[in-house]
Specification:
This protein has 181 residues and is an alpha+beta fold. The chain is 18% helix and 33% strand. It folds into 2 domains: 2-56; 58-164, no CATH class. It contains 2 helices and 9 strands.
Length: 181
């Protein structure tokens, strides 16, 4: 005979009866009750595993890069693997055990491409998204007031509204003058 124990202080159900003539077990009247209990417990286990997985998942870094880097971006630098490409470029990557899908809607986000995945739902039932990386047009740099520059001890640039274009990551702005005496 096979027995199934249900919960703390619960019942002991006899799940199977042995047929001596056939030498095998057969289900009895408790079988449907036992299957319902097993289904409930498996549901609880699945919920707990999902919570554990979300708690242990790496947090989405939400890197930001210039949109001009999208086509030539080195995904291995993030530890990501390109999974799918299409005529527009990389469409899906794997990072941190998750698939991240390219998005680029035509709405309030402007000219941007990002890779995101769902994280679940918030308290209002709305789907939450995590972003791995966003490629977007860089914003305009605001000038730093001269009095703030004087406090930092950094040199003050001659023309605070002049735009300096950088040719690459190693470029430097060299047009400076000493702070006023």
């Amino acid at each position: 005979m096979g027995y199934f124990y249900h919960g703390r202080g619960g019942c002991l159900y006899r799940a199977l009866d042995r047929n001596p003539k056939e030498g095998r077990y057969k289900m009895n009247d408790n079988t449907s009750t036992i299957l319902e209990i097993i289904a409930q417990q498996l549901g609880r286990i699945a919920d707990a595993l999902e919570e554990i997985a979300l708690a242990n998942a790496p947090k989405a870094p939400n890197y930001v890069r210039s949109i001009t880097e999208y086509q030539t971006f080195d995904w291995s630098g993030l530890g990501a693997e390109v999974v799918k490409k299409d005529k527009f470029g990389v469409a899906q990557v794997q990072w941190g055990g998750y698939l991240w899908t390219r998005r680029s809607p035509q709405n309030k986000f402007g000219e941007a491409i990002w890779f995101s995945r769902t994280e679940g739902k918030d308290t209002e039932g709305k789907i939450r998204y995590a972003r791995l990386i966003t490629f977007k047009k860089p914003g305009e740099v605001e000038p730093v007031p001269e009095k703030v520059m004087n406090i930092t001890g950094a040199p003050v640039i001659d023309a605070p509204h002049r735009r300096h274009e950088l040719s690459g990551p190693k470029s430097e702005i060299v047009e400076t003058r000493s702070p006023k005496s």
